[in-house]
């Protein structure tokens, strides 16, 4: 037994506990655990200090940015009124349905689904696709504009079905008179990438944050920064989905300034309707101030079709229309001006001493130069012709010879101050300069010298002459204003939206042309006789006022030297242009209130097509008389308060209140 007991006691399976070692191990583990816990708490505390102290301001801003958003508030675009206070461009608010392409997985499917809730036409889809291509990266693009109250209610009830689709209240531009004055007013349109690049160069570029629309043409474009106003800002609280739920702060916007045009919109409408479907232009100016009273380009167009983004099909129709309704003929069309040039050449003859008023030349019905026969369009030779009769009967022979005597450079130097071939500086973008020929111009343009025979046609407004109707109207107004040059302008004054103060856009004369009063009187008296016994007598028969005028017919295509012009054998668009210039009243001691230049494309003899339109304009502006058979004007249907007379400015004039082939215009009136 003892041996067996001893064997068991020394067996390898026997172990002995070491209490001290176990205690040390426990203490070590406890210390390590405590250190880990302390380190974890230290890290947490450090992170807390980092987040709550060091990074507090930055993180607070980021949190607020996610909870709130600063949203630009678009200002009301300024109104546009005519000279009598009639509103011709205004604003209204309406709801639009807009899609955020980045938050919509399937745009086409969404549009189809929306079509069951609101009325979405194919033109709306075409516009959306076009805008999506043009405005890549835009946060929202309209699929429908100007929703009815019923449509707003239907969509609101089903809004949950359309993530990424929002209702937004937008301001829309509206032109209550439709196509009346369409080329003058112009229109607005969505800001394009090219517009954005241009805006970035403006000193007030920040003011266009959130802006969707900008003036594209007309005074809407040239006075964009006056009309735009000052953008406001609001801070709103937003949900995780980005939807605004509460306004926190608001800096209200300031509306744009109001433009008071010099244009009489009722006169504008009368003239546009007098064109009766014909192509052409008419510009009427108040000589004493340079106020443009009417600025007509026919055919006109309705600016309302551009506001929401023009339908591609409509755009194509406008671009392919042979009558070119998009062309502003009054501003950008350049034409030979025919015999309307003659009064100015007569003045040049007197001023340079090349002719005396009583000096007579013989008009045999043609003019020979260098073996070439330049014919006169008179049916019979005029015989003895002095300066007065040369204007009244529109003698081509007189001005063939005069142009040869003056020379092209003398003509150029005399006509330049009158504005021919020069930018007038009217307050509308896109004005053309035209061509006032000279020897230097031809050498620069064609690298050729000037030939003396080229001067002959210059004398009757043909040849290289190419002027805008605006230049012709401006020169006519200067002639009526005794050589005092007033810059033509469409906006008479700008009214500050905050103070209500109005400032004139053209407060004083530009310069004066040094011309003798007696020479002006001689030319003006001859122009009065044009409408008494000359080429314009039929159009102004029975007028209760005296009007000075001059007819003009401008060649479109050439004919052979010995051929007679026969309009019936020529395509309508190749026939001569009809022109007429005039001012009234033009009696002794009377100060002209209105000066006009009119052109009817392919209208033929000036007295037959252009002069009657001018007569209609004069009768309405001077007498308040509508042309026979013309119904009520659109502006007559506006509320009386909209048509109330605007305050008269200091310095306003009271005038205007009622009180190639070479031939000229010598056909019987």
Describe the 3D structure.
This protein is an alpha+beta fold. The longest helix has 36 residues, at 19-54. It contains 23 helices and 25 strands. Strands 2, 3, 4, 5, 10, 20 and 21 form a seven-stranded mixed sheet that branches. A five-stranded antiparallel sheet has the order 12-11-25-24-23. Strands 1-8-9 form a three-stranded antiparallel sheet. It is 34% helix and 19% strand.
List keywords for this structure.
669 residues, 25 strands, alpha+beta, five-stranded antiparallel β-sheet, seven-stranded mixed β-sheet
What is the helix content? 25-40%
Kindly, what is the distance between the CA atoms of the first and last residues, rounded to a whole number of angstroms?
163 Å
Give me the secondary-structure category.
alpha+beta
Strand proportion, as a percent range, falls in 15-25%
Largest sheet report: 7 strands, mixed
The residue-averaged pLDDT reads 87
Topology (elements, then pairings):
Elements: H1 2-9, H2 19-54, H3 56-67, E1 68-73, E2 80-81, E3 87-99, H4 107-114, H5 122-134, E4 141-144, H6 149-157, E5 165-174, H7 182-185, E6 187-190, H8 193-200, E7 213-217, H9 218-222, H10 224-228, E8 232-238, E9 244-251, E10 258-261, H11 265-274, E11 280-286, E12 291-298, H12 304-307, H13 312-320, H14 329-332, E13 334-335, H15 342-352, E14 361-363, E15 366-369, E16 372-375, E17 383-385, H16 387-392, H17 396-406, H18 408-415, H19 439-446, H20 452-458, E18 467-468, H21 469-480, E19 484-485, E20 491-495, E21 502-504, E22 511-512, H22 517-530, E23 548-554, E24 577-584, E25 594-600, H23 606-623
Parallel strand pairs: 2-10
Antiparallel strand pairs: 1-8, 2-3, 3-4, 3-5, 6-7, 8-9, 10-20, 11-12, 11-25, 13-18, 14-17, 15-16, 19-22, 20-21, 23-24, 24-25
Helix pairs in contact: 11-23, 15-17, 15-22, 17-20
């Amino acid at each position: 037994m003892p041996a067996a007991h001893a064997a068991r006691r020394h067996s390898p399976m026997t172990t002995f506990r070491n209490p001290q070692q176990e205690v040390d191990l426990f203490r070590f583990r406890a210390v390590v655990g405590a250190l880990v816990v302390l380190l974890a708490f230290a890290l947490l505390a450090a992170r807390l200090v980092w987040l709550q102290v060091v990074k507090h301001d930055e993180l607070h801003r980021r949190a607020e940015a996610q909870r709130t958003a600063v949203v630009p508030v678009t200002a009301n675009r300024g109104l546009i009124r005519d000279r009598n206070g009639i509103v011709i461009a205004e604003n209204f608010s309406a709801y639009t349905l807009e899609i955020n392409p980045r938050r919509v997985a399937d745009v086409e499917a969404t549009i189809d689904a929306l079509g069951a809730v609101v009325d979405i036409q194919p033109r709306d889809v075409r516009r959306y696709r076009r805008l999506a291509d043009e405005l890549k990266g835009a946060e929202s693009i309209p699929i429908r504009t100007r929703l009815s109250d019923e449509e707003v209610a239907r969509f609101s009830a089903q809004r949950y079905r359309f993530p990424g689709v929002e209702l937004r209240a937008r301001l829309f531009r509206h032109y209550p008179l439709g196509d009346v004055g369409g080329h003058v007013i112009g229109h607005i349109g969505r800001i394009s990438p090219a517009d954005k690049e241009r805006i970035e160069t403006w000193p007030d570029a920040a003011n266009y944050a959130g802006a969707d629309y900008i003036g594209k043409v007309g005074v809407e474009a040239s006075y964009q920064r006056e009309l735009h106003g000052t953008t406001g800002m609001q801070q709103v609280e937003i949900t995780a989905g980005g939807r605004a739920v509460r306004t926190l702060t608001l800096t209200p916007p300031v509306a744009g300034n109001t433009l008071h045009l010099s244009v009489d919109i009722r006169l504008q409408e009368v003239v546009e309707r007098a064109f009766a479907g014909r192509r052409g232009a008419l510009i009427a100016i108040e000589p004493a101030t340079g106020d443009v009273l009417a600025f007509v380009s026919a055919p006109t167009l309705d600016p309302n079709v551009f506001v929401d983004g023009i339908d591609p099909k409509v755009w194509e129709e406008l671009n392919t229309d042979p009558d070119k309704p998009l062309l502003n003929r009054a501003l950008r069309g350049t034409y030979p001006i025919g015999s309307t040039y003659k009064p100015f050449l007569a003045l040049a003859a007197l001023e340079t001493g090349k002719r005396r008023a009583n000096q007579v030349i013989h008009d045999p019905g043609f003019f020979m130069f260098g073996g070439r026969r330049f014919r006169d369009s008179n049916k019979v030779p005029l015989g003895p012709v002095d300066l007065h009769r040369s204007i009244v009967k529109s003698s081509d022979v007189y001005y063939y010879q005069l142009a040869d005597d003056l020379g092209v450079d003398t003509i150029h130097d005399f006509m330049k101050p009158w504005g021919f071939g020069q930018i007038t500086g009217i307050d509308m973008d896109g004005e053309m300069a035209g061509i006032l020929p000279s020897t230097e111009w031809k050498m620069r343009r064609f690298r050729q010298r000037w030939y003396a025979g080229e001067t002959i046609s210059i004398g009757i407004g043909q040849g290289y002459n190419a002027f805008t109707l605006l230049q012709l109207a401006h020169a006519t107004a200067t002639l009526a204003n005794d050589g005092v040059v007033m810059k033509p302008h469409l906006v008479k004054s700008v009214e500050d939206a905050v103070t209500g103060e109005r400032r004139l856009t053209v407060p004083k004369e530009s310069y004066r042309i040094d011309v003798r009063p007696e020479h002006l009187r001689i030319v003006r008296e001859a122009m009065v006789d044009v409408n008494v016994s000359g080429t314009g007598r039929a159009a102004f028969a029975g007028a209760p006022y005296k009007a000075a005028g001059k007819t003009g017919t401008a060649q479109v295509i050439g004919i052979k030297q010995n051929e007679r012009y026969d309009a019936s054998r020529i395509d309508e668009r190749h026939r001569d242009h009809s022109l007429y210039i005039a001012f009234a009243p033009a009696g002794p001691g009377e100060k002209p209130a209105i000066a006009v230049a009119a052109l009817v494309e392919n209208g033929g003899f000036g007295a037959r097509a252009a002069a009657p339109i001018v007569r209609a304009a004069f009768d309405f502006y001077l007498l308040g008389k509508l042309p026979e058979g013309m119904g009520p004007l659109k502006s007559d249907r506006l509320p009386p308060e909209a048509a109330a007379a605007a305050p008269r400015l200091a310095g306003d004039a009271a005038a205007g209140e009622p009180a190639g082939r070479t031939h000229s215009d010598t056909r019987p009136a």
